[in-house]
Amino acid sequence: MLSCAVRHCSRYISKMVPEVVFVLGAPGAGKGTQCSLISKEYDFVHLSAGDLLREERQRPGSEYGEMIEEKIRNGQIVPVEVTCSLLHKAMQNSGKQRFLVDGFPRNKDNLEGWERVMSDKTKLLFVLFFECSPEICTERCLGRGAAGSGRSDDNLDSLKKRFNTYINDTLPIINHYDELGLVRRINAEVSPNEVFQDVKVAFQEVGMQQIAN
Ligand SMILES: Nc1ncnc2c1ncn2[C@@H]1O[C@H](COP(=O)(O)OP(=O)(O)OP(=O)(O)O)[C@@H](O)[C@H]1O
Ligand SMILES: O=c1ccn([C@@H]2O[C@H](COP(=O)(O)O)[C@@H](O)[C@H]2O)c(=O)[nH]1
């Protein structure tokens, strides 16, 4: 009886598909800040593609370290094989089921790579899109740099390149998901707490429950 229940249970677990929310928006729109708030109140693991790439860049012996640093400094996008594999590993290592994938997919290569490798292993719930003007975003990133972020791309030269990439490569991806009816737009030009109130509405609309404190 017990072994039957265990077999039934493991069959059930192996059928659970990890759920994903992509979190997109311009550099400095507040994606990381909001993901951190969301993961405290909802049962979602925050996976920042940029943070995973920065960690990989620092990993002794990484064959990708130099390439990642060059791409980051120039606001260019790292090939999807690298980013997707880091995301996949982080998802598996977490042992969890729900993920906020912050800052990905950023271009056509990312989108196609994810669809090739991950779309049959995961379920995309929706895309959170934080809307914020380039002026406000630039001020925030420069502020973050001045406050000691240590990021090699929180400077005006890199920011210009990051915004070009965002406009040319990432906005078309957001439009693609918008056409599929998957985008929840959030005004990110107000305070973090005000932004979070709108985020909560978006999560409620898709039936996500807050974790009881
Ligand atoms: N709503 C907000 N109002 C004012 N400042 C904010 C707001 N949200 C975030 N910030 C600040 O702006 C900076 C960028 O925020 P954050 O790192 O969350 O953005 P991001 O979209 O993840 O950026 P990036 O894409 O560059 O990693 C941080 O210094 C953060 O404290
Ligand atoms: O999927 C991704 C995510 C990020 N990058 C590179 O990292 C920097 C910084 O990303 P943040 O999200 O702002 O932390 C980004 O400009 C890209 O160079 C990437 O290649 N692919």
**Helix-strand pattern:** HEHEHHHEHEHHEH
Give the spatial strand order of the biggest sheet: 2-3-1-4-5
Number of helices: 9
Structural class designation? alpha/beta
Q: What is the CA-atom radius of gyration, in angstroms?
A: 18 Å
Bound molecules: adenosine-5'-triphosphate, ligand LLZGTKA7
Low-pLDDT runs:
1-13
Overall helicity: 55-70%
Mean pLDDT: 94
The counted number of beta strands is 5
Indicate the overall shape. Answer: globular
Strand content: 5-15%
- End-to-end distance, in Å? 36 Å
The description of the largest β-sheet is: 5 strands, parallel
How would you briefly describe this protein structure?
Belongs to the adenylate kinase family. UMP-CMP kinase subfamily. This protein has 213 residues and is an alpha/beta fold. The chain contains nine helices and five strands.
Can you describe what's shown?
The protein is an alpha/beta fold and 213 residues long. It contains nine helices and five strands, in the order H-E-H-E-H-H-H-E-H-E-H-H-E-H. It has a five-stranded parallel beta sheet, sandwiched between helices. Helix 3 packs across helix 4 and helix 3 packs across helix 5. It is globular. The protein binds adenosine-5'-triphosphate and ligand LLZGTKA7. The site of adenosine-5'-triphosphate (ATP) has 18 residues, from helix 2, helix 7 and helix 9.
Secondary structure: elements and pairs:
Blueprint: H1 2-15, E1 19-25, H2 31-41, E2 45-48, H3 49-58, H4 65-73, H5 80-94, E3 98-102, H6 108-117, E4 123-131, H7 134-146, H8 156-179, E5 183-187, H9 192-205
Parallel strand pairs: 1-3, 1-4, 2-3, 4-5
The structure holds adenosine-5'-triphosphate and the ligand O=c1ccn([C@@H]2O[C@H](COP(=O)(O)O)[C@@H](O)[C@H]2O)c(=O)[nH]1.
Residues 27, 49-50, 53, 71-72, 75-78, 83, 103-104, 106, 110, 153, 162 line the site of ligand LLZGTKA7.
Keywords: ATP-binding, Cytoplasm, Kinase, Nucleotide-binding, Nucleus, Pyrimidine biosynthesis, Transferase
Pfam family, one: ADK
Binding site for a ribonucleoside 5'-phosphate: 54, 76-78, 103-106, 151, 162
